[in-house]
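Fig. S4 source data, part A: sequence.
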Amino acid sequence: MILPLFKLGTLVLKTLSKPIAARLKSQAAHHPRFRTLIINVAQTNHKFSTQLQRRIYGHATNVAIRPLDEEKAVQAFSDLLGEVFIFSALRQKDDDLERELVLLKQRVDELEHHTRGRGIAGILNLRKNEGNEGKSQAQAAPA
């Protein structure tokens, strides 16, 4: 259930990032300082990722890296921006799921506490925690 929703969510985010990329390109065409900033960020990212890939694959890292041309740099920046947006959205989702998991564990613990001693598990003493509690109570009784 979650996997199709995850795929749908990433598809929606990618679709929404395309107009943002087009807007960035048009703004970069009109504002030279903004264009320079975008190109510098994209070139730095390109250099970093290329060096990282070379290290991973065991290639020489002291080789000169050809810079991207301006159009490719603007496109690379818009792609990077879209990935950062998607990653931050996924990170938020991950944090929300973690909080929900903690709450569910607390509710399960509360339910186990309230139902302890009831039902078949209580009659047959199949609960792990009750066995440990019984031992600690038996040790505490003689003292």
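Fig. S4 source data, part B ends here. The chain has a mean pLDDT of 77.
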